[in-house]
């Protein structure tokens, strides 16, 4: 796994716009090299703000949206269209504004699909398996970018400290008893996260500063899940000043004065 690089931006608004620019550049590069790209989305305030920033910039037209596979790191097990679903926020912020191939938008299904949460996790794992190519050397695609938000407790996706899902080696897992509502969710597991070429952990706010410090330390991923959020080729912690306030001096690179 790669060693994290830390980039610090002035505030949450600048952070979202900077991450949006990075995503566009990375997708264009991947599509130029391979003809297509795989992007994993996250929810949360900064995650959705980033998607809105992509929608707002003319540079978005550099991406061939029809040749992009979109995935989610986790989803609340709620019906389609529920405002608490990550998918709902992503569609409103970006997906409804670009010309995507619907077959390449890979949604984690909720109770209205008729699937139990366990069946939803298994169905998503099967979808990942079908998208994996021989050169991926595993049961999931080598995602070009996996975006992950991080909670004040250092959770990523729906992998919460000390929860059984952190020990699970399957690609996707059903989560019961989440300490953050709603309690039932579907999540990628750490092995799937670590299969990504690049993992970008995006965080803003002083309440995340302690978790950021732990995630960049030698902490184990069972108690600090974000410490296990590492990409095969590159790991970025993209932060605002507040969330970076407790990391050791010199660890982060200041990107905006």
Report on this model:
The protein has 257 residues and is of the alpha/beta class. It contains six helices and ten strands; from the N terminus they run E-H-E-H-E-E-H-H-E-E-E-H-E-H-E-E. The chain has helices at 12-34, 44-56, 86-93, 117-131, 190-193, 209-215, and strands spanning 4-9, 37-41, 68-72, 74-76, 145-149, 172-175, 185-188, 198-203, 234-240, 252-254. The strands form two sheets. A seven-stranded parallel sheet has the order 3-2-5-8-9-1-10. Strands 4-7-6 form a three-stranded antiparallel sheet. Helix 2 (44-56) links the parallel strand 2 (37-41) and strand 3 (68-72). The longest helix has 23 residues, at 12-34. It is globular. It starts with a strand and ends with a strand.
Concise overview:
The protein has 257 residues and is of the alpha/beta class. The chain has helices spanning 12-34, 44-56, 86-93, 117-131, 190-193, 209-215; strands spanning 4-9, 37-41, 68-72, 74-76, 145-149, 172-175, 185-188, 198-203, 234-240, 252-254. It starts with a strand and ends with a strand.
């Amino acid at each position: 796994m790669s060693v994290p690089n830390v980039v610090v931006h002035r505030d949450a608004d600048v952070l979202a716009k900077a991450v949006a620019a990075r995503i566009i550049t990375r997708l264009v590069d991947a599509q130029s090299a391979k003809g297509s790209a795989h992007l994993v989305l996250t929810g949360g305030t900064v995650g959705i703000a980033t998607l809105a920033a992509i929608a707002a910039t003319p540079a978005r037209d550099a991406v061939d949206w029809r040749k992009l596979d979109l995935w989610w790191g986790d989803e609340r097990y709620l019906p389609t269209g529920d405002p608490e679903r990550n998918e709902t926020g992503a569609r409103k912020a970006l997906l409804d504004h670009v010309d995507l191939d619907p077959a390449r938008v890979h949604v984690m299904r909720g109770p209205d699909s008729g699937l139990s949460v366990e069946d939803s996790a298994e169905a998503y794992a099967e979808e990942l398996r079908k998208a994996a190519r021989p050169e991926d050397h595993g049961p999931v695609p080598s995602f070009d970018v996996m975006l992950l938000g991080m909670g004040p407790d250092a959770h990523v996706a729906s992998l919460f400290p000390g929860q059984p899902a952190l020990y699970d080696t399957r690609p996707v897992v059903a989560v019961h008893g989440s300490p953050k509502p709603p309690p039932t969710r579907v999540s990628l597991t750490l092995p799937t996260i670590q299969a990504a070429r690049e993992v970008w952990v995006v965080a803003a706010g002083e309440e995340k500063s302690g978790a950021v410090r732990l995630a960049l330390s030698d902490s184990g991923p069972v108690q600090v899940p974000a410490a296990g959020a590492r990409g095969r080729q590159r790991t970025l912690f993209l932060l605002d000043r507040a969330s970076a306030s407790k990391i050791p001096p010199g660890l982060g690179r200041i990107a905006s004065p």
